[in-house]
Amino acid sequence: MTTPKNSLPPGLVSNLQQVLLSRKPISGDQEDDLANPASSEDDSSKPIILVTNSDGVESPGLSCLVEALVGDGTYNVFVVAPQSDKTTSGHSLSLKDTVEVASVEVNGAVAFEVSGSPADCVSLALSGVLFSWSKPLMVISGINKGSSCGHHMFYSGGIAGAREALFNGIPSVSISLNWVKDESVEVHFKDAVTVCLPILTATIRDIEKGIFPRGFLLDIEVPKAPLSNKGIKITKRSSWRSSVCWQASSGARTQAASRFAASQPGIGLQFAQLSRDASAAGAARRFMTQKKDVEVVESVGAAGKSEFKRTVKYYRAEVVHKEIEEADEDLDYIALQNGFVSVSPLFPSTDTDSESETAALNWISSTLLAALQ
Known about the structure:
The chain is built from eleven helices and eleven strands. It has helices at 10-22, 28-35, 60-72, 118-125, 152-155, 157-167, 187-209, 252-262, 271-291, 332-337, 354-372; strands at 48-52, 76-82, 101-106, 109-114, 138-145, 172-177, 217-222, 232-234, 243-248, 315-320, 341-346. Helix 7 links the parallel strand 6 and strand 7. The longest helix has 23 residues, at 187-209.
């Protein structure tokens, strides 16, 4: 019996072996989870809650919220969250990129991390390709670190995750904790969960009853000291925003490289990607070998002028918080600064009909707040 010949070039095979050895091996459990994620799903009679966030799958806010939802025992909890911090990713979608999905452990929930944005996570979860279901009862984005008040909603990856659910006709809630540097501590996430659980329970109850108004997402902003809050206030959207200050950075090449590396996928699942990596590795070695025998000469144009030399500069953005000039106590940012839990309806566009807005505000004021008293 003859052994079949290897159809791949020896050099590519060698490169593939090197790349494979450098990759973290996929366990049998991971292969089973990725091939059949629905196999881990729980009691189908329980309502399905999908949780995402913007800070990343390992964030304490997500962990505390999922722990509470799973511990309640009433829901089937699923998590699809970004692999890394996507706080200011806005409503971006990875339309031209391949995203990697890997199973992870998040406090007993069926959970996956995605090398994309929060909007990617929700879109993928609702597509029907990752789970056997495509319509959860509700999507919760949070608990996100830092408020999404005012114009921050346009930058916020957390708001975008909830908005993507709204676009797909799924009731959604976004929860943010007003994180203040040198004042906030990790236990405040757990306290924020304590504050928000009654709101979530009342919302889920009305969704199941069919009396939850459609066409908006519920935005909950929790003050920096959650357990010391002054109560819940129905708020309007403010025009508050932070200023972005750009500074020249001399050491940004290393910083940019580290950020790029941190955003890359962990475990490669596609042979094509391995092949590209291997080919690139081989090409790099050939280039370095050839480079030793090449003399670098400055190129001169036809008129004797030197060709354009590319100049690279590096800048780093810093956020500078501004004081809000508006004084209306019913604005989200003002209420939050005054220690209230801000609750406001967000609509998919500024051209919202008055009937939908009135229905949302009536539900919050009469049904939600009454249930919490």
